[in-house]
Amino acid sequence: MILPIVHTPSYDANFPAHHRFPMGKYTRLAEILKVEGLAPRGFLQPDFLQETALKLAHDPIYVDQVIACAVPESIEKVIGFPVSERVSRRARAAAAGTLLAARVALEQGLACNTAGGSHHARRAHGAGFCTFNDVGVTASQLLSEGTIGAALVVDLDVHQGDGTADIFRDEARVFTLSIHAERNYPHNKIASDMDIGLPDDVKDDAYLEVVAHALAGLGGFAPDIVFYNAGIDPHEEDRLGRLSLTNDGLARRDRMVISHFRERGIPVCGVIGGGYGKDVEALAWRHAILFREAFKLA
Helix or strand or coil: residue 200? Predict the structure, then answer.
């Protein structure tokens, strides 16, 4: 089977090259996937998500502010950049992309979005470079329409998934798992259903042992879909990470998670999560690891 991949140029809001958030990695990632033959039929194109879906996971007032590009400056500071028209469009497109990838995964077993994993955006507002929580929006929409009855979020970004935990804190149908660097952002964490905070400088083998134990600890829980946040910021060279994974460690991690659920017949929707640094080429190449491993397992 060909791996379904969702992408749109709107994922790149064209930030300056020196910006702390490496926006150019989305465009470069898509180019790499094409060159490597991982998208032989091109990309699936998402539409811009409508307000009704966004408001299932976020405060309606905040959603209206983002769409109107009228987010208060105090919230923009928490997000980490101004919410311009390009940023607003990007946020809506990324959420739509994860929703499309999830729908395709439910049909075909596996699909990935070349954006997504904006797990710091909470119900009330965005935070930590995240405007809308795409996984939060997608799971809420699929639950609301009855397409799924239960979902699992496996968040392996180096930062704790506080926004996703916030959105689903009172939702028993969504189980949230976060494995992250304990001393990293956010300082004030919101409890997931299962949180595993790691000490600094954990390397490949020790990290993978923790992931394997966590997956085994899920027991007989059988969700209708898994949202896998494959952040590359646990990498040893990441500017905002505190762990010490190699490229091989990231590949083994992605292979382990995807195959774990594929073997059980549970659909997987992959999103790319975080990855930070000035070398956009290296970041895009690391993000491509998810798609290389998923391609093998599709």
Answer: coil
Residue 1 has pLDDT above 90, yes or no: no
Question: How large is the C-alpha radius of gyration of the chain?
Answer: 17
Contacts of 204 (CB under 8 A, 6+ apart): 244, 245, 246, 248, 249, 252
Domain count, the chain: 1
Residue 162 has a pLDDT of 98
Give the C-alpha separation, 119 to 231, whole Å.
Answer: 10
What is the extent of the structural domain holding 53?
5-297
* Coil vs helix vs strand at 86: helix
What's this model's pTM, rounded to 2 decimal places? Answer: 0.97
DSSP states of 225-281 as a string?
EEEEE--STTBTT-TT---BB-HHHHHHHHHHHHHHHHTTT--EEEE------S-HH
Q: What is the CATH number of the domain that holds 9?
A: 3.40.800.20
Q: What is the mean pLDDT of the chain?
A: 97
Among 104, 117, 202, smallest CA distance to 163 is for 117
Mean pLDDT of 185-193: 96
d(CA 6, CA 44): 5
DSSP class of residue 116? Answer: -
In this prediction, residue 47 carries a pLDDT of 87
Quote the Cα angle for 198-293-290, to 5°. Answer: 55
Q: Is the pLDDT of residue 220 over 80?
A: no
Question: Please, where are the H alpha helices in 19-149?
Answer: 25-35, 51-57, 60-67, 73-79, 85-108, 134-144
